[in-house]
Amino acid sequence: MKISTTAQAGALESNDVLVTVMPNDQGGVQIQLETKRVIFKQFGKQIEEVVRGKVSEMDVDDVIIKVQDKGALNYTIRARVQTALERALASGTRD
């Protein structure tokens, strides 16, 4: 599936994550991770794997996912990615 609109889920509060999804005209899944440097070094690859896993599970293609992490746990990241993708997919079907 492909999304045709931008959508968000989450918040920029402590222990949360703001996930923004948008169509990727160049194709493929691109992840833009913003977090503290120490978190990125220790957990960056794991966060990206969690995001890619949820995108793959939902069978979404050609998407840019911006992840602004504030210390969220994996289950929160998965939930935010899923919600943002569901919002983008629902918005695209109303046109």
UniProtKB/TrEMBL annotation:
Principal subcellular localisation of the protein: cytoplasm
Molecular-function annotations in GO: lyase activity
One Pfam family named in its UniProt record: ACP
Cellular localization per UniProt: Cytoplasm
Keyword DNA repair recorded: no
Record PTM O-(phosphoribosyl dephospho-coenzyme A)serine, positions in chain: 14
UniProt KW keywords: Cytoplasm, Lyase, Phosphoprotein
Cellular compartments per GO CC: cytoplasm
Protein name: Citrate lyase acyl carrier protein
Taxonomic source organism: Desulfitobacterium dehalogenans (strain ATCC 51507 / DSM 9161 / JW/IU-DC1)
Organism phylogeny: Bacteria, Bacillati, Bacillota, Clostridia, Eubacteriales
